[in-house]
Amino acid sequence: QACRAAKTAAEVRALLDRARTALRGTLSQAGPNVTKAAPAPEALKLFVEDKVFGPNQQGWQRIIYDLQNRMAAFTTAKFDPKDTAAWAQHTRVPVAAGSSEQVFLLWNEFFATRIDRQVPTLFIRASGQPWLDVICGEPSSQEFFCLRALPDALPMATDVPYDLDDAFKSKAKRILADFQRADGLESLGRSDTEETPPSSWGSFTQRWFKGKGSK
Question: Which one of 16, 54, 153, 191 is CB 3.0 to 4.6 Å from 149, fit for a cystine?
């Protein structure tokens, strides 16, 4: 809001400088030995069962399919930090249960079960909106299209009508059961190397973004 009200580039730069200084001050007060508490199994259960994911875990199945389909290069079993050819990928997921702080913690834990921890992953929550934008991989300007995109232009993964067979639904159910137990979160997904044929939606989003260039 302050940047919108600013009249000159110098005012905007000064605002950003002050914000960076405040963030650095907060980090220095936290100290170097602050550790992140893992979410309790009860919190994981409420998260997985949140009504925003629809009936019969349908929303979760679509999210898991989206990650397996478009982010295969970033999975623990396949990620190669020396490979710079993999494009960053974006997905949009529901905010789901709890406060903003808890939502970031829960989604971070879930993505850590599907995406290698060495992959840079950026979580962005738009103020007052019911979704979370997640960018895996080193982002370029086109990945930040999500900052201004409403659901009619960039829907949540839970709203994309993938055609999923029973075998995949059973697999997704097992993944969520393991996640809810909070048992071995560090190693979940390490043996999950099944290939999934690219969907028409994934092909469409890649074509669309490639056409946008740096705009």
Answer: 153
Q: Report whether 156 contacts 205 (CB < 8 A).
A: no
Residue 82 CA to residue 188 CA, distance in Å, equals 23
What is the pLDDT at residue 124? 93
Pull the structure tokens for residue 132.
Answer: 């979370």
CA atoms within 13 A on the CB side of 134: 27
Q: What is the band of 81 on the pLDDT scale with cuts at 50, 70, 90?
A: confident
Which residues lie closer than 8 Å to 126 by C-beta, 6 or more apart? 133, 147
- The pLDDT of residue 59: 96
- The pair of structure tokens assigned to 31 is 């100290």
Tell me the β-bridge partners of 136.
Answer: 89, 121
**135 forms bridges with which residues in the sheet?**
90, 122
